[in-house]
Amino acid sequence: MKENVASTIVFILLLFLNINLLNGQSPPGKPEIIKCRSPEKETFTCWWKPGAQGGLPTNYTLTYHKEGETVTHECPDYKTGGPNSCYFNKKHTSIWTIYIITVNATNQMGSSSSDPRYVDVTYIVEPDPPVNLTLELKQPEDRKPYLWMKWLPPTLVDVRSGWLTLQYEIRLKPEKSAEWEIHFAGQQTQFKILSLYPGQKYLVQVRCKPDHGFWSEWSPESSIQIANDFTMKDTTVWIFVAVLSAVFCLIMVWAVALKGYSMVSCILPPVPGPKIKGFDTHLLEKGKSEELLSALGCQDFPPTSDCEDLLVEFLEVDDSEDQQLMPAHSKEHLDQGLKPTHLDPDSDSGRGSCDSPSLLSEKCEEPQAKPSTFHTPEGIEKAKNPETNVTRTWDPTSLEGKIPYFHVDGSKSSTWPLPQPPSQHNPRSSYHNIADVGKLAMGTAGASATLLDKTDKHVLKSSKTIETGGEGKAAEQREVESFPSKTDQDTAWLLPQEKTPFISAKPLDYVEIHKVNKDGALSFLLKQKENSDQTEKPSAPEHTWSETWISILKIASMTH
Amino acid sequence: MDNKGSSLKGSLLLLLLLASNLLLCKSVASLPICPSGAVNCQVSLRDLFDRAVILSHYIHNLSSEMFNEFDKRYAQGRGFITKAINSCHTSSLSTPEDKEQAQQIHHEDLLNLVLRVLRSWNDPLYHLVAEVRGMQEAPEAILSKAIEIEEQNRRLLEGMEKIVGQVHPGIKENEVYSVWSGLPSLQMADEDSRLFAFYNLLHCLRRDSHKIDNYLKLLKCRMVYDSNC
């Protein structure tokens, strides 16, 4: 029974409690004192934070007692500091004294107290921000402008008696900048800023700190617009300079446009191209060697009688025999010539490239053009110089397909260009020249290949077809036919002298070597040297082609 | 012979000058303007007060830092503050407790009060340094500050005596000060008690240095700047 009663009571109590809890009612939670501050070291305020409400209206009280006293006081002012605060006025404030403060929360259900807080006003001083911040832009005449800012200490703080000593700090920034520029101002209530950007709007703030306390909040922003005026002078100068430069540039452009080319040529004179006196590249391009050569001062090439210097080499042949070599008119020779294909450099054989007449055509077909470094101008020049190496005499241009002596034209009837008496004689050494000539021919052939125009090629081709001697004439004829008007030019090949070379058993005979055709076929003209008397016997030419060759070969063998 | 004698005299003079210069230099450090013992040296009151205020401000800063360091290092969670109520040996000196009281007191009395407080701290500071040095793991920061405070306190006392000599010449006050009897507490075996003794001493030092600083600033503004700082 007793147990039942006890349990019942407990049950009821619990029920009661539960009902209360269900309703949300409970004693108040423990409040907490957050902060106590004094703005001037003469008064102070404390704020607290309520605990859990407990669902019932709660009454808060603040009680305190001071160091050295036993009496407990209650907060004199709950209002001035706002809700949940207690304001201690001057009368109730003692410095260098510890306050022990407690907040009590009470509601219907019960009460609770906060932990006591020990407060010494000496160390909780945090003033208000300074006031009356004024900004002024000063522009002394001979100095840079600066920003002059002034402010006043917060109203409550007593600085004049020395009760509090304040130190200040200012900060400023251009309106759009993100970072503040902070300056410590000490105990003065003014400050000068010298480094300013013109045309900007500046924001300025100031705050203060007591000698042994906390920094205040920043004052509200003051702004000032920095004018551009004092840079006007610089700007004007720059604009002036810019305009002048623009005008100058325009004038220059106009002048260049007008004068244009002449100015350019004045500044950059054209570079003259390489030029040979009397040599016109245009003619060369056109392929008119005749004109070209005439421009050089040489009437025709091979050299005619006029150009005594322009000589082909003379092959001196030591001819003991009484040979009558074929005069020039055997045109057949010309084509085939001696193909100097396998000329030995040291061969004095005079065989040239071909040893036997029968082989002549075959062998002589082989060599063909071995390109050498022959240029037109060079050849011509060398040709002018009879003393030069044989190899040089031939002008590749002359080779231009026109087998020179196919000049049908009667003016120079002798197909064999008469050799000019060479200025020098090279007895016995003659065949050496042939070899060189062969080379020359080959080289020339190659070189001339580039120079030849189509017709020339055609000619050569046809010349090649000349195989055997028998065909010679026919080929020659063909060749002759294939030569159009160019033959005139080809007279260049012809030696100036038109004397039919007639070698009559003389000790030294000259072989006049011409480059006949592209193939490098040499055509010789055996000539009698010194035959200046010129026992010209035009009648000689009745020799056959083969005879001529035989005689040549004989000569060649003899010299060996 | 004459030349020798004169040269000897000259060198002696030089030596004397040199020595006196050295001595003066040394003394200059402590009293740059008036050599000790000089009676007719007149430094302006303004300069005296400026220096005094600088010293007092400096001493309080040191004391505050020293207390904070000690509190952080040794006194956390021990609830020393609850016990350090009304336990300063200088509380017997009736000092003004707020601005009004301070402004009502006569400047001479205030000056004397400052002197008394300063004198009251000579002994405790001396022992504080000795005891901190003897502590286990003597904290260097606290020790160095204690040494500095002791020295500066002595200098401030000298300066204040000069000021009083100028403001109140001729009157020699009895040297009244509060006697400190906390030495045994600093030497207690119980660590907790000993630490509390230190805590209490540092707490009182912080407070009194603040008082001195405040009073001197008030006096300076009143006497030198005519209450228009």
From TrEMBL, chain A:
Residues 328-393 are annotated as: Disordered. The chain crosses the membrane at residues 237-258. It comes from the Eukaryota. Residues 27-128, 129-229 form the Fibronectin type-III domain. Coiled coil: none annotated. Keywords: Disulfide bond, Glycoprotein, Membrane, Metal-binding, Receptor, Repeat, Signal, Transmembrane, Transmembrane helix, Zinc. Residues 329-349 have a biased composition (Basic and acidic residues). It is a single-pass type I membrane protein. It is found in: Membrane. Residues 1-24 form the signal peptide. This is a receptor for the anterior pituitary hormone prolactin. The WSXWS motif appears to be necessary for proper protein folding and thereby efficient intracellular transport and cell-surface receptor binding. The box 1 motif is required for JAK interaction and/or activation. Belongs to the type I cytokine receptor family. Type 1 subfamily. Interacts with SMARCA1. Interacts with NEK3 and VAV2 and this interaction is prolactin-dependent. This is Prolactin receptor. It comes from Ceratotherium simum simum (Southern white rhinoceros).
UniProtKB/TrEMBL annotation, chain B:
Pfam families: Hormone_1. Residues 1-30 form the signal peptide. It is found in: Secreted. Gene3D superfamilies: 1.20.1250.10. Keywords: Disulfide bond, Hormone, Secreted, Signal. It comes from the Eukaryota. Its main location: secreted. Belongs to the somatotropin/prolactin family. This is Prolactin.
